Give the backbone structure.
Amino acid sequence: MTVTAQSAHQVELDGHSHYFCSAKCLTKFNADPQKYIAGTQNPASTAPTPAQAGAIYTCPMHPEIRQDHPGNCPKCGMTLEPEMPALDDDENPELADFKRRFWWTLPFTVVVVALAMAGHGTDWLDGLFGNVGQNWVEFGLTLPVALWAGWPFYKRGAQSVVNLSPNMWTLIGLGTGVAFVYSVVATVAPQVFPAAFVIDGRVSVYFEAAASIISLTLFGQMLELKARSQTSAAIKSLLGLAPKTARRINADGTEEDIPLSHVHEGDRLRVRPGEKVPVDGVVIEGSSSLDESMLTGEPLPVTKRAGDKLIGATMNTSGALVMQSEHVGSATVLSQIVQMVAQAQRSRAPMQRMADVVAGYFVVSVVSVALLTFFAWGFFGPEPSWVFGLINAVSVLIIACPCALGLATPMSIMVATGKGATNGVLFRDAAAIENLRKVDTLIVDKTGTLTEGRPTFERAVAMQGFDEQDILRMAASLDQGSEHPLAAAIVAAANEQGLKLSKPEAFDSESGIGVQGTVDDKALALGNTALMNQLGIQVDALKSQAEELRGQGASVMHLAIDGQLAGLLAVSDPVKATTAEALKALREAGLRVVMATGDGLTTAKAVGKRLGIDEVHGEVTPADKLKLVEKLQAEGCVVAMAGDGINDAPALARADVGIAMGTGTDVAMNSAQLTLIKGDLRGIATARALSVATVANMKQNLAFAFVYNAIGVPLAAGVLYAFTGWLLSPMFAALAMSLSSASVISNALRLRNTKLIGE
């Protein structure tokens, strides 16, 4: 049956979307996916390999180019790379091909260059080959170099003309092609040339220039491809964290080791000491200490007991655990990290727009300069003027290849995102890396951002006619439908006290200020004073108790039953141990820190005073947070917003840089440009330092590319000849062109050694 991506029956597995015609087919697939997709998935990886169906290929310099098969970029001619590298990738096929072409033809190039350097008119060479015989020998030796080794260059150059997208291959193909064709005609039909081209009784040939340029370009491409392969090392190291198998506990109590791709949601898995947690899930039996440093950067082991969450690929160091899987395949934290890193590496930095604009006119300008060089030397240069003109024009075409300019920013971005990922910092795109260094104002949420986000219930205060257990039971019954950490603390406290909870008959979340619903046929409202004011419910009767609790740093929620205040509940959330250190580092970096929270103003000020935050906004709604961001932006501030909840999502999306806590909700992370995996504000200082280093690196690369061309093109055109008698050989131009690209990539790779906060 015909199935489309709009089908309601679909599932994500190992990074692939699978669509079905009916629920029955979907159920059969979920029962044993490998039966239907055997051979198309790599169990050790969440990403498709180049040989797998569904792999997407993209260009390192033009990420908007995407296709489902290998090929060359229609804009720059580069070989397209898999969007997601695989752990077991073999050597880059393009690198292997270029190596073969280079080493097989290098001896021919060496001999041709040696003959040319020995010179024509030499007695022993003339005796060996004759006056024009050497031309034929060089022709024969150059033929395999030009037609086989250089074929990829000519092919890409022709494609650039067909696609109306001139690029580096246009220049290389044109330069080497002109030198080779000219030399062939000079060998086969020398009589067609005027006398100005004749030296020592023959027309000069430049087979050595064509051969050496092709060999040096191949060598440069080998260096570039080898260096570029290192930029995917971060993704491969992340992929390598995942175990290849999991130990499943079957329904009959037996256990078996199965491939990781066979694990389904809801499976019971055993994790023995020294083993990695296979997928994301929750502990149902046992306790142990887990090393989560590979993903969070936190050096100390974390104790896990029944009910605690587990992250796939973390290491179980001591006790045995039985877990239930919750997220598998592309839904795991590790897979999402890999996806975010890959997405960021392929994104385009705002700074690259300038390079793209320049590169768009660059090739046409270079061809114009080459033509001008040819005719200027031909008409006004010393004899043999037209020979000088030809060689200098070829040198201009070769040395001005814009590969260094095109690689300047993408290479820095690829290295920086990999560096950030290994330090618990995930950038969504290149723009976030470039913009973070400009941030001067940071708005932070309280719960889950400054605090642990794992609050504990303190106490309940009841109005006359109710008791504290009534207040806790009713509030917990309503809060069963809420995702907020404060709600979880209330529900947990009710369960610990053995209170029987009722199922809410209706539930509505007033995001950021509270919840409403119906429990036991009673209309309940639970939230801060903003919600009570919105509903017209007076809270003055418990005002003094609420203020006292807030002064101690507790969050206070009022409970109204059938429109009347029934009591309040206090929940405390300890400040993270790292928050004070993080705020100190941010202030030292020159950032203005502002707290905006849905909690009461008294509670917010108490926490702010403890942390040294002077600017505090309490009882703010999601709309208020959004308005605060817009207000600061209107004042000229560059604003970053850090939060972890659904109520933070609008402000995260509106801020110049949204920063989500990795311990928060998916909605928050999807709205942000930066995610801190371990939910530690110190990651902001780390990310900012990386942003500064990356932008500096991009500027260095762009400056090098511009300066290189500003100096190289005039030298190749021969502007110094009148003063020094020097001309730049096309061979040296080819070498300089190749080394320029390698230098840009090498400079980008230096970012891997940048010392960041916490390392």
About this structure: Residues 473 and 494 are 6 Å apart (CA to CA).
